[in-house]
Amino acid sequence: xxxxxxxxxxxxxxxxxxxxxxxxxxxxxxxxxxxxxxxxxxxxxxxxxxxxxxxxxxxxxxxxxxxxxxxxxxxxxxxxxxxxxxxxxxxxxxxxxxxxxxxxxxxxxxxxxxxxxxxxxxxxxxxxxxxxxxxxxxxxxxxxxxxxxxxxxxxxxxxxxxxxxxxxxxxxxxxxxxxxxxxxxxxxxxxxxxxxxxxxxxxxxxxxxxxxxxxxxxxxxxxxxxxxxxxxxxxxxxxxxxxxxxxxxxxxxxxxxxxxxxxxxxxxxxxxxxxxxxxxxxxxxxxxxxxxxxxxxxxxxxxxxxxxxxxxxxxxxxxxxxxxxxxxxxxxxxxxxxxxxxxxxxxxxxxxxxxxxxxxxxxxxxxxxxxxxxxxxxxxxxxxxxxxxxxxxxxxxxxxxxxxxxxxxxxxxxxxxxxxxxxxxxxxxxxxxxxxxxxxxxxxxxxxxxxxxxxxxxxxxxxxxxxxxxxxxxxxxxxxxxxxxxxxxxxxxxxxxxxxxxxxxxxxxxxxxxxxxx
Length: 518
Description:
Elements lengths: L1 H4 L14 H9 L7 H4 L3 H16 L15 H8 L4 E3 L5 H5 L7 H29 L5 H26 L24 H7 L7 H18 L10 H15 L2 H9 L13 H4 L7 E5 L13 H7 L3 E3 L1 H4 L15 E2 L2 E2 L3 E4 L2 E4 L12 E5 H14 L5 H13 L5 H4 L9 H15 L6 H7 L53 H6 L1 H4 L8
Antiparallel strand pairs: 1-3, 2-8, 4-5, 6-7
Helix pairs in contact: 4-7, 7-8, 8-10, 10-11, 11-12, 11-16, 12-16, 16-17, 16-19, 17-19
């Protein structure tokens, strides 16, 4: 892993004139190889280091060119293609879609590598800023804000890796099964490489505890309120996601209630995507600009819109719960460019959530208020004394804005009289509301062995390729053909293998590979 962790990548995007001493530093070192001491020697260079951390989150490095790993596009594309509600139409995500990957598959390998590259940058920022505060370079208020932002990114990235490389929280009593290594040391020296190389996987419980500790610190430390930077509210919102996976229903509700009044749903379901940087609903998204984005091989508007590499699956398109006149089926255009929610080519349906096919500037939506509301709705239905009326109210808040006639189409108290029926409706609503936003895999993962809405493994999917137009005709549920068989939860393919490059480099992880991948 020496080639992965040795240097802190520092971005100078958005930084103006720097002092002569800073110019000398930059002259002495390549911009991506500035020493750690130099990178945290002035407020301007520290801001550059912070920008570099966000660049690692939104763009990543992949194999020399950024592909949006992890939080710029990859989490959307991988999360979608692991589920059944999209169809991979080409070869780009075929190995993910068909679960024919192994320990050398690039998209899986770089999810891990770029995830830990980002984590290392967060650790270097935490350590560098801490020293800068001690040395009087930054005030505690400014420095703690930066530390909180780094802890937020460290937490959510470890949590994301858990969902692909570890079994869900409830797999064993006390979540004592293997999670992922929780890295809290910034690695930039050989001795740190040698020490960290020996560390293995934390348990899932330990990893969750550390994720929550970082998110709690982020909530308490961050003062930034920007959408494309970690914020106090982003940390709170993400905790509702984490507690949902832990099945701690009361904590989901407690955290969600903190955001009451801070956000409102957009009036129309496409409002989030009409203005992805300025709407009332988005809580945290990553910045994509015309000069800094994952490019034609990863940007969401390229992959899902311009190149049409992933289509909406007939499985969800024809689901009777998704009403025919639901506004999330709306198809409108500005000239030749789709600006509604979907568009049609060859009879197939594609998402129009990501609009900018030229400059790829659509924000990548990590978490928005609709998810917080549905997280709380599910928690109310699942808690020890279910509150189905509270659950119904929250579910309807999200669903009603998409209905042609809420007065006649909204769910009522008679619609779902048991917690299981309510939870099933909420899960279905999540599939519709967050379609093509990367959320499906997270739900499949956490619902393994569930008591009210169980999923076993990975559901069957429409075959890789271009479905015929007839497959999208509404009126009846989709019943086949399925070209990709379901995979049982006990199958090793339910989890991704720890990358072979990591196994080769880390003797401890070599003995902790996911079962069936040795």
